[in-house]
DNA sequence: CAAACGATTTTCT
DNA sequence: GAAAATCGTTTGG
């Protein structure tokens, strides 16, 4: 399967990238076990003009530093002291854009995922949510700043291309504090896919 | 140096 | 439907 090249991420169009990521495959190889899944839900965090973005107004801190790197690296961070959220940094260095992966449809390494999630059987809750899929794939803050061209976490072309009218746009989750920017349709998912997170319906 | 809080999920009422 | 869990980062003294 073909690995997504660096220049896919460095384009100056985070919204387009967020949409195109749907249907692509995310792969992790940890503890010698390969796990993968199809991306079915994403959210765009479009840089300094986006109030919901951590790096709003070019706010450069220790935590947001990876977003200022060149596109194509991972930005993982801990939320509520419990969950790890996995983001993909986009655009070029100096432009703090990122796409949050919210849900995947599991493909390979199912047993390892179940083990990590402490579940005994497959259910739609396995990877439906940003904190959950990170846990299932074994992604932690130790992987932040990691290049997606490496041998630990990377993305591949999917088998199926998602037609434009199968992409649903909606408002983002958990960003009410962002005022008007919370209303932007920056959340994308595959229409009718049962693995899409149901935390808050579209 | 100390205190408050968050791009979430689970569990209990 | 509401509240707790839990800790690194951010902000204020």
Description:
The protein has helices at residues 6-9, 14-20, 110-117, 130-137, and strands at residues 25-30, 33-46, 74-79, 83-90, 97-108, 153-156, 167-170, 187-190. With 202 residues, the chain is an alpha+beta fold. The protein has a single domain (6-190), classed as 3-methyladenine DNA Glycosylase, Chain A (Roll), CATH 3.10.300.10. A hairpin with a 2-residue loop joins β1 (25-30) and β2 (33-46). The termini are far apart. 44% of the residues are buried. The mean pLDDT is 91. The protein binds a DNA duplex (13 and 13 nucleotides) through residues 43, 45, 52-54, 61-63, 77-83, 85, 87, 100, 102, 125, 129-132, 141, 172-175, 177-178, 199.
Counted beta strands: 8
Which oligomeric state applies? single chain
CATH-defined fold name: 3-methyladenine DNA Glycosylase, Chain A
Question: For the report, how would you describe the main beta sheet?
Answer: 8 strands, antiparallel
Distance between the termini: 32 Å
Judging by the overall fold, what is the CATH architecture? Roll
Structural shape? globular
Per CATH, the class reads Alpha Beta
Structural class: alpha+beta
Provide the residue-averaged pLDDT: 91
CA radius of gyration is 16 Å
Q: Spans with pLDDT under 50 lasting ≥5 residues?
A: none
Order of helices and strands: HHEEEEEHHEEE
Spell out the CATH superfamily. Answer: Methylpurine-DNA glycosylase (MPG)
Note the total helix count.
Answer: 4
């Amino acid at each position: 399967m073909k690995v997504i090249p660096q220049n896919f991420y460095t384009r100056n169009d985070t919204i387009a990238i967020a949409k195109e990521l749907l249907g692509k495959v995310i792969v992790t190889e940890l503890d010698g076990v390969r796990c993968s899944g199809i991306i079915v839900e994403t959210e765009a965090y479009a840089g300094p003009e986006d109030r919901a973005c951590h790096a709003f107004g070019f706010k450069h801190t220790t935590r947001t530093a990876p977003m200022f790197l060149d596109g194509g690296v991972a930005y993982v961070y801990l939320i509520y002291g419990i969950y790890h959220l996995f983001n993909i940094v986009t655009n070029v260095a100096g432009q703090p854009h990122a796409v949050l992966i919210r849900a995947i449809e599991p493909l390979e390494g199912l047993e390892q995922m179940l083990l990590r999630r402490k579940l005994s059987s497959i259910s739609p809750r396995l990877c439906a949510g940003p904190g959950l899929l990170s846990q299932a794939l074994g992604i932690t803050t130790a992987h932040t700043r990691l290049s997606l061209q490496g041998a630990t976490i990377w993305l591949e072309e999917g088998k199926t291309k998602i037609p434009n009218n199968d992409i649903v746009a909606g408002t983002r989750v958990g960003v009410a504090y962002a005022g008007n920017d919370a209303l932007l349709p920056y959340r994308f998912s595959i229409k009718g896919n049962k693995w899409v997170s149901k935390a808050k319906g579209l």
